[in-house]
Structures are given as structure tokens and as C-alpha cells.
Amino acid sequence: MRFFLSILALVLLSSCYSIERDCTDFKTGTFEFTYSIDGIEQTSRFMRTEDLNIDYHEEEKADSSSIRWINDCEFILKKLHPTTNSEKEAIHMKILSTTDDSYTFEYKLAVKRPNRPSRVEKGVAKKIK
User: Fold this and answer.
1) SS3 labels along 15-83
2) CA nearest neighbour of 126 among 96, 94, 97, 104
3) In this predicted structure, what is the pLDDT of residue 29?
4) pLDDT at residue 120, rounded to an integer
5) Which uninterrupted H or E stretch holds 10?
6) Tell me, what's the pLDDT at 6?
7) Which residues form the signal peptide (predicted)?
8) How many CB atoms lie within 10 A of CB 63?
């Protein structure tokens, strides 16, 4: 009986914990995101408006995508000028948690490919403006 009450108390106390998610502060602005490709760390800077996302890569190439907001914490990105078939596919972005100047997010293809496992990636973006 004691064991059951201990487990019940633990579940009740842990259910009160909630992750901070104030996504409206991150709908627009300029952000930095560090990622790794083949073990080489790179930084990308992007500017987001209410309906447009412009990526600036280290080579200073600009890459634009349209944004369609699902709710305050989720949106769909679609490249405006894709150069390959894989760039034509929309990306579903979801903000998982926020701090004062950054947010943790995950992203995946917006439409699941048949007979392929869904790949979900995570990252942290820092607001710089």
C-alpha cells in the first residue's frame, strides 16, 4: 500500500511540471542556428517575418521559404525557389520550449512518405534581434 501511495504521489507531483512555451516572441525576428554536417559545425542565420523565412548560410547565400502558421508554436515551411525534388517538400516545424532568447524546436517532412520511416530532427535557435 505504501508503494502504491508513493507512486501516486510521484505521478501527481511530476504532472504539475510544465515546460515554458511562449512562442509568440519567436514568430518574427533574426535568429542563429548551429548545426553539424559530416562532423563540421556550421552556423546559419535566418530572418523570419509573419509569412516569410530567409536563410543566410555561411557562404552568404540567401534561401527563401514561405511560412504558414498552424498555431503559435507550429508552422509549415515551403521553399519558394526549390532547385531539387527534395527541396520541393514542405517541412513541419514545432517549437518545443522557449527561454528568454532562444527556443528548442523539432522538424520533419510535413507529408509522410509511404514505406519510409519518419525522421525527426531537433535543434536550438537563438534570437539575435
Assistant:
1) HCCCCCCCHHHHCCEEEEEEEEECCEEEEEEEEECCCEEEEECCCCCEEEEEEEEEECCEEEEEECCCC
2) 104
3) 92
4) 86
5) helix 2-15
6) 65
7) 1-20
8) 17
Spatial distance between the Cα atoms of 92 and 67, rounded to a whole number of angstroms: 10
Tell how far CA 97 is from the center of its chain.
10
Residues of the chain with pLDDT under 70: 1-19, 58-60
Write phi, then psi, for 53 (nearest 5 degrees).
Answer: -125, 125
**Rg of the chain (C-alpha set):** 18
Contact 76, 70 (CB under 8 A): yes
Residue 127's pLDDT is what?
A: 92
Architecture per CATH, domain 19-127, reads as Beta Barrel (2.40)
Which is it for the CA torsion 87, 93, 98, 101, positive or negative? positive
Integer Cα distance of 28 and 48 in angstroms? 5
Cβ(44)–Cβ(57) below 8 Å: yes
> Which residue type is seen at 57?
H
Kindly list the domain boundaries of the chain, sorted by start residue.
19-127
